[in-house]
Amino acid sequence: MNKIFKTFKKIFLALMLVLIVLITSGYIYLYKIPKGPELTEVRTLKTKSDSFVMHAYKNSERKSIKVWTYKPENWKNRDRILFVMHGGGRNADDYLDAWKEISEKNNVLVIVPEFENKFSKYTTNDYQEGNLFTFFGSRNPKEEWAYQVIENIFDQIKKTNSITNENYNIFGHSAGGQFVHRMIMLMPEARIENAIAANAGFYTLPEEDLEYPYGLKNTPITDSSIKESFTKKLTILLGENDNDPNLETFRETELAMQQGKHRLERGSNFYKRANTMAKERLWNFNWEIDTIQNVGHNYREMSSQAINYIAN
């Protein structure tokens, strides 16, 4: 019996050692080793398609981010600026391509950050959930939130191109739609003029007893910040035919399914819950909801409509 116990103890200790090594290695790889593409030289944006790589965080060189841009020939300082947030495929170049013609036609400077991650199929916390928490559940400082990266990119572009715009617009589809509505809720102080969250897979409800990312529990959001979020201009943009839960990656956890059977229903329910909360508390509410007819989960078709929700 003692031999069996000793053998079991050795196996258990060996497994624990392997687990500790794996967790430690994973933590170092994810959060200590510098990540991202090689930095490019600092310069002004080229007309039409361009890209550059910058540090994602202001006070750390641990992470870099590639930023794709499209600058129309007639664009000048004080003209409109739009951030476009890609979907879960993290295909920023495809999203830029979808916006080129729209950009030229409407004279909008389009900026598409690429939140690259080799493990994006297995993790969503670093992008559409804002990087509030690490993969292991510990809190990240606000300076490393994905939403703060957008503000940093805006500052970088303003500085290197002598741009004096005080605000920008932002559009996101699918995972990008998740990103946009959470940014409005978690960082209402961001310099966003108009936000469009299109066809998000699921939402962060203004519920303090629900764990993030389904609700606000364990986040720094307060009644005061929710009230401020409701004053921002946010459009929940839905595709009439985005009602197929089998299309692409669709979260089917218990809390997600409570929001609705498909993206169309979840978007509608999210807006209703926020609107009801604002009415109950007599708060200003500048959010809107709209549905694009005969369109499903298609970022190109939704992009072509989203431009109509950006102020001239």
UniProtKB/TrEMBL annotation:
Superkingdom to which the source organism belongs: Bacteria
Transmembrane segments: 12-31
Keywords: Hydrolase, Membrane, Transmembrane, Transmembrane helix
Gene Ontology MF term list: hydrolase activity
Stored SUPFAM superfamilies: alpha/beta-Hydrolases
PANTHER family noted in UniProt: BLL0132 PROTEIN, PEPTIDASE S9 PROLYL OLIGOPEPTIDASE CATALYTIC DOMAIN-CONTAINING PROTEIN
Protein known as: Alpha/beta hydrolase
